[in-house]
Design goal:
Helix 1 links the parallel strand 1 (23-27) and strand 2. The protein is α/β, with parallel strands linked by helices and 350 residues long. The chain is built from nine helices and 14 strands. It has two domains: 16-142, Rossmann fold (3-Layer(aba) Sandwich); 144-308 and 318-340, Dihydrodipicolinate Reductase, domain 2 (2-Layer Sandwich), CATH 3.30.360.10. It binds NADP nicotinamide-adenine-dinucleotide phosphate.
Length: 350
């Protein structure tokens, strides 16, 4: 039997600028916090009202750059601010659990940069605390909220691919070796898998669910963190994912999902706004190119708007990227890091 359609499904993402406005506080004014703040200012009604840094000077400089007033010289003061509804945790991976728990203990909702924690155990501790406190918690896996991802979601749900058998994704970026940088320092949970590999493992989870078996081979950096890793995941139904991540070489950043009736190929990058192609076994080829004009990290505006909607609807977990899926993704990464000989997986930061 063949499978053909005349046009791709329309992305069902609501306009980010229509989402209810929340007051955001930011933990850690680094690179991604800067881009996130720009993205939501450009495309949403979300308001960053306060920032906390380990030093007041950095907090004040960030607040001045983005045009708001409240800057704190500690994360504790930031989470205690009664005018903050939701805290964006934008510190290095190694600090995510401590900072998320700090915000949750203060009764705040949290958006936690990827990876949510360094290990599945760490992510479970965030999930347990958020559930006990009744607050919303979400990993910032922004790919899930992009328009192109919703096209893929609909094609999968409508059975247009048939049984999913082969999934591929790569994410590599050449980062010069610097033992002190967060990408290579084991104390900051460096390595390709946690920084970039989380996207490819999450892509496999999106198409196939949690794997039954994980096979990983890799190469370590001089600091003992993984410099690059290739993974094969197999699902209980026999579907397979072939994934790679690297800090040594830039790779195309493409994602594919192939099934018995058709396949999806993303444009580059699969993890940010780009485009998507569907090819049916019957020969239909359709291509969708993102027309919304929110390039690169401006695409984070979709996840922020989704979170604002979920919170206003009284949800405590994301329907498109539940916390339990962030936990199983980290369980896969735990196992891959163990197999490649990553320094101190069990005893390291959570
Ligand atoms: N979604 C995406 O596309 C994306 C892209 C890049 C990064 N990220 C994620 O965002 C997180 C931060 O990455 P980044 O590139 O923004 O890092 P960054 O530029 O190095 O900023 C991290 C900030 O964390 C604070 N911090 C707290 N404890 C620290 C410690 N022990 N060592 C160093 N800094 C510490 C620092 O701010 P203060 O000292 O001023 O408090 C620092 O400016 C990572 O988890 C990463 O995976 C996501």
């Amino acid at each position: 039997m063949t499978n053909s359609i005349e046009s791709l499904p329309t992305p069902r993402h609501p306009d980010p600028s229509d989402a209810p406005s929340l007051r955001w506080g930011i933990i850690a004014p680094g690179g991604i916090a800067n881009d996130f703040t720009d993205a939501i200012r450009m495309h949403t009604r979300q308001k960053v009202v306060a920032v906390g840094s380990r030093t007041l000077e950095r907090a004040a400089a960030f607040a001045a750059r983005h045009g708001f007033e409240r800057a704190y010289g500690s994360y504790e003061e930031l989470v205690a601010d009664p005018e903050v509804d939701v805290v964006y945790v934008a510190s290095p991976h190694s600090e995510h659990v401590a900072h998320a728990l700090l915000a949750i203990a203060a009764g705040k909702h949290v958006l936690i940069e990827k990876p949510m924690a360094v290990t599945a155990a760490g992510a479970r501790s965030i999930a347990a605390a958020a559930r006990a406190a009744g607050v919303f918690a979400m990993e910032a896996m922004w790919t899930r909220y992009l328009p192109q991802t919703d096209i893929a979601r609909q094609l999968l749900a409508d059975g247009m691919l048939g049984d999913v058998e082969v999934v591929t994704a790569d994410f590599g970026g050449a980062a010069p070796f610097d033992p002190a940088s967060r990408l290579y320092d084991p104390a900051l949970a460096g390595g390709a898998l946690l920084d970039l590999g989380v996207y490819v493992v999450s892509w496999a989870s999106f198409a196939l669910g949690a794997p039954e078996h994980v096979f990983a081979t890799g190469k370590l950096a001089p600091t003992g963190v993984d410099a690059q890793v290739a993974l094969v995941l197999s699902s209980p139904g026999g579907g397979q994912a072939l994934l790679s991540t690297s800090l040594l070489a830039g790779t195309p950043s493409l994602g594919t999902i192939s099934g018995t009736k058709g396949r999806i190929e993303t444009d580059a990058p699969f993890w940010g706004p780009s485009g998507i192609r569907f090819q049916s076994r019957g020969g239909t080829e359709l291509h969708w190119v993102d027309p919304y004009g929110r390039p690169y990290r401006q695409g984070m505006s979709y996840e922020a708007a989704a979170l604002a909607r979920y919170i206003s609807e009284g949800l405590t977990d994301s329907p498109l990227h539940p916390i339990d899926e962030a936990i199983t993704t980290l369980a896969t990464i735990d196992e891959a890091r163990r197999q490649v000989g990553y320094l101190n997986v069990a005893g390291g930061a959570q």
